[in-house]
Amino acid sequence: MRVDLKDPHRYPLLRFRTVSFNHKSLCHWDFWRMSTTGEIEQSYRGVQTHMEALDRLMGEILSADVGCVDDMLKYAGRYSGKRLRPALVFIIGDMCGETTDKHVRLGAVVELIHMATLVHDDVLDRATIRRNHDSVNIRWNNKDAILLGDIMFARAIRLLVTIGNMRALDLLTGAVSTICEGEIQQNQLSGDFSVDFVTYKQIIERKTASLYAAGCELAALLGGANEKLVTAFSNFGMSLGTAFQVIDDCLDLTGDENVVGKSLGTDIKNGKMTLPLIHLLAELTGAEKTQVEELIQRDNCTNEEVKEIRVLLADHGSIDHSLSLARGYVQESLSPLRDLLPARDFAVVEEIAGFVLERRL
Ligand code: FPP
Ligand code: MG
Predict the structure, then answer these.
(1) What is residue 39's predicted lDDT score, i.e. its pLDDT?
(2) Does ligand 1 lie within 6 Å of residue 124's CB atom?
(3) What is the 3-state secondary structure (H, E, C) of the chain?
(4) Which residues of the chain have pLDDT under 70?
(5) For residue 36, what pLDDT is reported?
């Protein structure tokens, strides 16, 4: 498929190439970027130029002629926090050959899809805080939050088309379908205590890890890697994404809302059977077990009650157990990369994995 990127009528999202940059959106974007990233930025040192190109492209995409939509898109810009997904795209692109303008667009596509899912997710989870501020559904309302997520998703796909690669189109649209399937599976199993570790892993691979896997796979592919390395990076993305979600589920139960910057305790309130809760219920017996099951099934569980569950989770080693499983997934997927990458590149991949496993936000 040949794509004329210079045609601003067909690809208005790429206007950033030909028109002067929108200064207002850059300021907004940069502000949130700086305030939400931690040591992870250290691992981005080799791809700084690509990250800057990403910021410019994102600033352009998150704007609209309709004033109220423009406000919402700018506000949703803060949903991009650590920019881990695009950073991985650039780091992998470099390791596999070369990071090109296609990687910058791929990074933006993956980040936009991620941000769109968060806008929708906060509606589904009835969450009120994201990145330390009101979530879009609270700042506006559920109806407009759903529509905004749709706009972001549509713009991501439109940008994806300009990459002109059918495998990329196929993989990423497939990943979006998989994400939604995982979400539906999770909703249908809400408050169902028969959810075991295998089902939980399936759900989080679908709703979270599939996007990481697709992003890593395509970054390697567009960088010119052979199929063996492409597969190794796809598997790495899958396990890193799985670990990311396990840590997320631990933080939902044990994190500090001011540090994590989003509504916590929502998993219990929404009856989500996450790994620490599955482990805890397997450990508990009698009245204690019945009490926790009753709390998970009620949708008005209080913050005090969530705190009581925190104590039980600590007493029964449920968080430690979850974290050690997350570490195990990542270790497993790192092994093939150790053999395929030069030591210096492998150290960078290991560093990123370490960040995901240690993260507090
Ligand atoms: C975070 O889960 C949410 C996801 C990983 C995916 C949510 C996806 C959807 C709602 C489908 C949206 C689809 C499109 C096309 C826009 P979480 O609630 O465990 O994480 P959180 O703690 O960050 O809220
Ligand atoms: Mg959520």
Answers:
(1) 64
(2) yes
(3) CCCCCCCCCCCHHHHHHCCCCCHHHHHHHHHHHHHHCCCHHHHCHHHHHHHHHHHHHHHHHCCCCCHHHHHHHHHHHHHCCCCHHHHHHHHHHHHHCCCCHHHHHHHHHHHHHHHHHHHHHHHHCCCCEECCEECHHHHCCHHHHHHHHHHHHHHHHHHHHHHCCHHHHHHHHHHHHHHHHHHHHHHHCCCCCCCCHHHHHHHHHHHHHHHHHHHHHHHHHHHCCCHHHHHHHHHHHHHHHHHHHHHHHHHHHHCCHHHHCCCCCHHHHCCCCCHHHHHHHHHCCHHHHHHHHHHHHCCCCCHHHHHHHHHHHHHCCHHHHHHHHHHHHHHHHHHHHHHHCCHHHHHHHHHHHHHHHHCCC
(4) 1-39, 41
(5) 34
Span from the CA of 267 to the centroid of ligand 2 (angstroms): 8
Q: Are the C-beta atoms of 323 and 246 separated by less than 8 Å?
A: yes
What single-letter amino acid sits at 7? D
Q: Kindly identify the ligand whose nearest atom is closest to the C-alpha of 248.
A: 1
**Partner residues linked to 351 by β-bridges:** none
pTM for the complete prediction?
0.88
Residue 153: CB within 6 Å of ligand 1? yes
Tell me, what's the pLDDT at 125? 92
Q: Which residue segments constitute the domains of the chain, with CATH numbers given?
A: 37-358 (1.10.600.10)
Residue 130, strand partner residues: 133
Q: Is 120 in the pocket of ligand 1 (CB under 6 A)?
A: yes
Q: Is the C-beta atom of 189 inside 6 A of ligand 1?
A: no
Most informative mutation of 112, 202, 207 for ligand 1 (most atoms within 8 A of CB):
207
